[in-house]
Design brief:
Number of helices: 17
Number of domains: 2
Shape: globular
Strand content: under 5%
Length: 478
């Protein structure tokens, strides 16, 4: 089920109404309703994979209890590694098996050995990377004695399967979400209205910004070998806004939906395209994943406690694993490697934690230095996104080579598609303006002109949304 679908438009009010009607009767019944709704939400994609989600949930629930009750360290370690191996094993089979098999065959072909590899003809279960990381953080926290296991199977299952975050995050922690699940929620009209506002802004990002940019980005990336430099730059620019509008739009809808139920989720985006360096960018982009890797991989590897050699090693590991987490393709690994290279000058100079506050906080405009920093960081991200979007590494290099060939003959090449490029550029400028004025808030709908902004955004959804069919969110494939 898509957040931007008619089906969800009926699903959400129904669940919301039932949820608050039984609020005074039983917290257990309320949580059971949310769990049933979450399983229905997931089953709408492919009901068969619901059993995989349930198995993964049951495994981590059971091993969490067995670890905590283990009479000795050896048995505790056994249950821990059982959960880790099975969870990572499922992720490896569904997401990475074909990649490793095909890469192995290609490596052997370099030495003149031709091997016919056996590949799996299966689809990737939607959200598997997200709910697997929920479970992994849970069992790791129990193993490290940071938390006690949850003994209520419904509450734990809801933590893993809560429908607003189930298929594309944010990646929650048991220490943050489980306490909210276990305590009674009281309806708060102000929070619910704020949630509706955030949903509207998320839909605008997805339907108006991301889906409009996708039309041009798809056309240009599919015709990159014949397009001129300016067109290719515009294609990269469109995708840069597409992926941000798509993924942050999903996160806004997820956070806003959860506020309707009295539950606060972790913030996943904080205006990353206004970052003044690449380190700040990664503190503001996909925050729940970045902090997950920091807490469960970077710090256990030694973090920043060792010498510079260890810091460099750990930074490259984090970015390469992050790239590989996004997909089983060398393009994602190169994307991660490139971002690690971007990060190196800041790490080596010790300036990776300089820009910790909001840019131009309390001011209307940034300083010249801040403006240049944002421009350079945005361009670095744009170049990296070319690898993320391309089907192969070779295609990405050809795309960038032609983009930097400075062939501007013909200007921007207009495609015979349903939206005009000039109008889209103006729309993106409006979007940037709305983001800039709201950079100290979660969304733009605040202050005395709040209703004017809401009306303008709703008009955009109505006028431009009619051109769009409900399309998948990009991160569903990860």
């Amino acid at each position: 089920m898509l957040f931007n679908s008619i089906q969800y438009l009926f699903f959400l009010p129904l669940v919301f109404t039932l949820y608050w009607l039984i609020n005074q009767k039983s917290l257990k019944l309320q949580n059971a309703l949310l769990l049933a709704a979450s399983y229905y939400f997931y089953a709408c994609w492919d009901w068969r994979f619901l059993f995989l989600l349930m198995f993964s949930t049951g495994l981590d629930y059971y091993t969490g209890l067995k670890m905590y009750d283990a009479p000795n360290a050896r048995l505790k370690k056994f249950w821990f590694w059982l959960s880790i191996i099975v969870n990572v094993g499922f992720l490896g089979v569904f997401k990475y098996y074909n990649f490793f098999a095909e890469s192995f065959a290609e490596m052997l072909s370099v030495f003149g050995l031709q091997v016919n590899v056996w590949t799996l003809q299966i689809i990737l279960p939607v959200g598997i990377s997200f709910y697997t990381f929920h479970g992994l953080s849970y069992v790791i926290d129990i193993y490290k004695n940071r938390i006690e296991p949850e003994r209520n199977i419904v509450d734990y299952s809801l933590f893993v399967s809560y429908f607003p975050l189930l298929v594309a995050g944010p990646i929650e922690r048991a220490t943050h979400l489980l306490p909210q699940i276990k305590k009674p929620r009281i309806f708060n009209s102000d929070r619910a209205i704020d949630g509706l506002h955030q949903i509207i802004w998320g839909l605008f990002k997805k339907v108006v910004i991301a889906d409009s940019c996708a039309i041009y980005a798809n056309e240009i990336f599919s015709d990159y070998e014949s397009a001129n430099s300016l067109t290719l730059f515009m294609g990269a620019l469109y995708f840069t806004f597409q992926i941000y509008g798509d993924f942050s739009g999903y996160s806004d809808i997820a956070l806003g939906t959860s506020k309707l139920f009295g539950i606060e989720l972790l913030r996943n985006f904080s205006y990353p395209y206004f970052s003044r360096d690449i380190a700040e960018f990664w503190r503001r982009w996909h925050i729940s994943l970045s902090t997950w890797f920091r807490d469960y991989l970077y710090i256990p590897l030694g973090g920043s406690q060792g010498g510079m050699k260890m810091k460099v090693r750990n930074t490259f590991i984090i970015f390469l694993v992050s790239g590989f987490w996004h997909g089983a393709n060398w393009t994602f690994i190169v994307w991660g490697f490139l971002n690690a290279l971007y990060f190196m000058p800041l790490l080596l100079s010790g300036t990776n934690r300089v820009n910790m506050d909001i840019v131009a906080k309390g001011k209307t405009l940034p300083s010249l230095r801040e403006f240049l920093g944002m421009g350079i960081t945005f361009f670095m991200a744009l170049v990296a996104w070319v690898f993320f979007r391309s089907e192969t590494v070779g295609q990405a290099f050809v795309f960038l080579k032609r983009m930097f060939s400075f062939n501007f003959n013909g200007g921007v090449e207009y495609m015979s598609i349903e939206r005009y490029s000039v109008e889209l550029v103006l729309l993106l400028l409006f979007f940037l303006f709305m983001e800039w004025i709201s950079r100290e808030h979660e969304h733009p709908f605040f202050g005395k002109f709040k209703w004017i902004k809401i009306i303008v955004v709703l008009l955009g959804l109505i006028v431009l949304g009619v051109y769009s069919q409900a399309s998948d969110f990009i991160y569903f494939q990860f």
